[in-house]
What does this fold into?
Amino acid sequence: MEVPLVEIFSSVQGEGKYVGCRQVFVRFADCNLRCRYCDTNFECRGQWQLNDLIVEIERLMAEVPTHSISLTGGEPLLHWGVINELARRLSGTKIFLETNGTLVDELERVIDVIDIVSMDVKLPHSIGRDVFEDHRRFMSTARRKDLYVKVVLDGETTVEEFDRAVEVIGSVSRDILLILQPVTVVEGIRAVPSSDLLKFQARALRHLSDVRVIPQTHRLIDVP
Ligand code: SF4
It folds into this structure.
């Protein structure tokens, strides 16, 4: 089985609920979205044989005790067949899925082998369309596991789309952890003002039980 990869490395998780945990990151190629703030290169840099990938993961895990394997991208669920096979071969290792939360059918094919789901909720202004209904269905399946969701906030985020995102999350469960992540500024993207960050958190806390503001910490300490 061939696996289209961008890179594989050991580092700390820089975002969300498990920030600071040591992980092996397997970055799959390709994505089904084109977010305006995307700072990830998801072009394929090589086809790996599955066996070679497992050997490399095990080598990295032997070097440093590791919390989990982060399957990231791009969008890793485009490669759901590989995910199933990887998890089967790495039985006993925690599998952490970083996903844009839109590929519902693909999630259903792998959910049994996933331990933690870190899901983005995409706001319409950032991807040019509304995928809230996909997100609702995705969360309904993902909440069988350890699920948390992230919303990236930038200077163009509107109250209307933010409230809609909170309503969709709350309609699945008010106890889903929501991380508000201020955008890391790249060319053409405006930062969210700090005062707005606090207002967005206050709005979400009226409907959800746990809402945290956490920036991309790996950028602060300059690790991949
Ligand atoms: S879903 Fe993630 S990888 Fe894909 S375009 Fe958006 S930010 Fe980039």
